[in-house]
C-alpha cells in the first residue's frame, strides 16, 4: 500500500508532497550490516546516518515511505517533549532527564539542518511555534513552562494581551508561549526527503515489504518478507504506533490516540495578513487540544483528537468549522478541501521507550511529538551501533498498558462525544 490510495490517511500532505523516491519490494535474499523496519522519521534518520558512516543498511517498509505518523502529522517541529522539562526530570531523575531534555531541546536544529544539508523540499518555516493559553489555568501552565525552559537558556518568550492576539490573529487566547527553536514542515515531504537522502548516501529502501518473521541465526538476525529475506548483524525496529502483531510487546505498551486534521482552501491575502501572520504553527493548552497552522499555499490546517470514521466524522468536521469560526471569525464561511487522520503512540508516563531485545533495538512512544525526537533518536541509534555512543534515553523495561483497548476506545469516542457536544476551545 502506498501513502496515496486512501484520501483519509494522508490528505493534504499526499496531495502537495513531491513524489517519493522509486523503490521496489524486497525480492530474494540479501545481507546487510543493519536492517531497519519502518520508513518513518526514526527509521529513515537511522538509515541516513548509518549510510553516511559507510555501513550497509536496508530499510523494510510495510506500506510506503511516511505511511505511519510521519506522513500524517501536523508538522509542528517542536523542542523537547509534551511534558514540561521539570516534569521530565521528576519522572526520570536529574541525570537522565536533563540529558534527554538537552538532546530533544536541540532536536529542531537537527531537523532544519538536515533539511538544509540535503536540500529537502518540505516547506520548512523556522519562525517558532505558539502554545496558546486557554483561560487562567492555561496561562499558569505556560508561565511554568516558560520559567522552566528559560532557566535552561532556551529562546522562549511569553506573549500576553495584544502581542499574543496579534501573533495568533485571534482574541480567543490571552497569552502564548513563543518558542523560537521550533517551526513547521510539510511532514510527508520531509519523510520522502530523508528517504531520498538516505538512498543517495547508499541505503536501500524496500516499500510494500512488511516484515513477517524475525529470527536469530547465530550472530545474525533474519527478517522475512513475503518475497525475500534480509540477514543483518543488527535490527532497528522503528514501527512505533504502527507496530503490528510481530512485535506485540512493543504495541501493548502504546495506547493509540487518534488525531485528525482538516485543511481549508488557500486563504485570501487579506486573511493571511491577520491569521498567524508570522507563520508560526500553534496549538492550545486544552486537554482535547486544537492545533492550527498554515501550509505553503496558505491553507489553514486545523486538528484535534479523534478519528474520522463512523458517526464521529461529521461531529469532528462540524467542530472544526465552529472552532475556526470562533477563533478566526474574520475568515467568514469555511470550506475544507482535505481531511485525514492517524494514530499517536501514547505511553502511560508520557515518556518515550528504548528497548534492546538482543540484536534488535527500538525507540518508540513519542506521545505526539515525534518529528524532532524521531530524527534525533534515529541518529542516536545509528551512533550507538557505529560507535557504542550512549543514547539520550535509558533502556526501559516493557510495561504493558492495562486495559489498553478500553483506553483507546475512551480516547476515540470521548473526543467524538466532546466535539459533538460542542466542546469549546
Ligand atoms: C495525526 C498526527 C499528528 C501529529 N502531530 C505531530 C506534530 O505536529 N509534531 C510532532 O513532532 N509529532 C507529531 N505527531 C507524532 C509523529 O508523527 C510521530 O511520533 C512520528 O512520525 C513517529 O515516527 P516513527 O518513524 O517513529 O514512526 P512512523 O512514522 O509511525 O513509522 C512507522 C512505520 O513502520 C511501518 N511498519 C509497521 N510494521 C511494519 C512491519 N512489520 N514491517 C515493515 N514496516 C512496518 C509502518 O508502515 C510505518 O510506516 C503526530 C502524529 C499523528 C498521527
Automatic annotation (TrEMBL):
<dbReference type="GO" id="GO:0005737">
    <property type="term" value="C:cytoplasm"/>
</dbReference>
<dbReference type="GO" id="GO:0016491">
    <property type="term" value="F:oxidoreductase activity"/>
</dbReference>
<feature type="domain" description="FAD dependent oxidoreductase">
    <location>
        <begin position="33"/>
        <end position="383"/>
    </location>
</feature>
<dbReference type="InterPro" id="IPR006076">
    <property type="entry name" value="FAD-dep_OxRdtase"/>
</dbReference>
<dbReference type="InterPro" id="IPR036188">
    <property type="entry name" value="FAD/NAD-bd_sf"/>
</dbReference>
<protein>
    <submittedName>
        <fullName>Glycine/D-amino acid oxidase-like deaminating enzyme</fullName>
    </submittedName>
</protein>
<dbReference type="Pfam" id="PF01266">
    <property type="entry name" value="DAO"/>
</dbReference>
<keyword id="KW-0560">Oxidoreductase</keyword>
Amino acid at each position: 500500500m502506498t501513502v496515496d490510495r486512501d484520501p483519509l490517511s494522508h490528505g493534504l500532505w499526499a496531495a502537495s508532497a513531491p513524489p517519493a523516491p522509486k523503490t521496489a519490494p524486497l525480492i530474494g535474499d540479501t545481507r546487510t550490516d543493519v536492517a531497519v523496519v519502518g520508513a518513518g522519521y526514526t527509521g529513515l534518520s537511522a538509515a541516513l546516518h548509518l549510510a553516511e558512516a559507510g555501513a550497509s543498511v536496508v530499510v523494510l517498509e510495510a506500506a510506503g515511505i511516511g505511511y505511519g505518523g510521519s506522513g500524517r502529522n501536523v508538522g509542528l517541529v517542536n523542542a523537547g517533549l509534551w511534558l514540561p522539562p521539570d516534569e521530565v526530570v521528576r519522572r526520570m531523575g536529574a541525570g537522565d532527564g536533563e540529558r534527554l531534555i538537552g538532546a530533544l531541546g536541540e532536536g529542531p536544529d537537527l531537523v532544519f539542518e538536515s533539511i538544509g544539508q540535503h536540500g529537502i523540499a518540505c516547506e520548512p518555516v523556522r519562525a517558532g511555534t505558539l502554545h496558546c493559553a486557554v483561560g487562567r489555568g492555561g496561562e499558569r501552565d505556560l508561565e511554568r513552562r516558560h520559567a522552566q525552559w528559560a532557566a535552561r537558556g532556551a529562546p522562549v518568550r511569553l506573549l500576553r494581551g495584544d502581542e499574543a492576539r496579534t501573533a495568533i490573529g485571534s482574541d480567543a487566547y490571552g497569552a502564548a508561549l513563543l518558542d523560537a527553536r521550533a517551526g513547521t514542515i510539510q511532514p510527508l515531504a520531509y519523510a520522502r526527503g530523508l528517504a531520498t537522502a538516505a538512498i543517495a548516501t547508499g541505503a536501500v529502501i524496500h516499500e510494500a515489504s512488511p516484515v513477517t518473521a524475525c529470527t536469530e541465526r547465530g550472530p545474525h538476525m533474519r527478517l522475512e518478507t513475503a518475497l525475500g529475506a534480509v540477514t543483518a548483524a543488527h535490527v532497528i525496529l522503528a514501527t512505533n504506533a504502527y507496530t503490528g502483531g510481530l512485535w506485540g510487546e512493543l504495541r501493548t505498551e502504546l495506547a493509540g490516540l487518534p488525531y485528525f486534521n482538516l485543511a481549508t482552501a488557500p486563504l485570501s491575502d487579506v486573511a493571511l495578513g491577520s491569521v498567524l501572520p508570522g507563520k508560526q504553527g500553534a496549538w492550545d493548552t486544552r486537554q482535547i487540544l486544537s492545533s492550527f497552522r498554515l501550509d505553503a499555499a496558505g491553507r489553514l490546517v486545523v486538528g484535534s483528537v479523534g478519528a474520522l470514521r463512523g458517526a464521529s466524522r461529521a461531529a469532528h468536521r462540524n467542530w472544526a468549522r465552529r472552532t475556526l469560526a470562533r477563533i478566526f471569525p474574520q475568515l467568514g464561511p469555511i470550506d475544507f478541501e482535505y481531511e485525514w487522520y492517524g494514530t499517536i503512540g501514547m505511553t502511560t508516563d508520557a515518556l518515550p521507550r528504548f528497548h534492546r531485545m538482543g540484536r534488535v533495538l527500538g525507540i518508540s512512544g513519542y506521545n505526539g511529538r515525534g518529528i524532532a525526537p524521531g530524527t534525533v533518536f534515529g541518529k542516536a541509534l545509528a551512533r550507538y551501533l557505529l560507535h557504542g555512543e550512549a543514547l539520550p534515553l535509558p533502556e526501559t523495561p516493557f510495561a504493558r498498558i492495562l486495559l489498553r483497548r478500553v483506553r483507546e476506545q475512551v480516547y476515540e469516542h470521548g473526543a467524538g462525544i466532546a466535539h459533538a457536544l460542542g466542546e469549546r476551545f
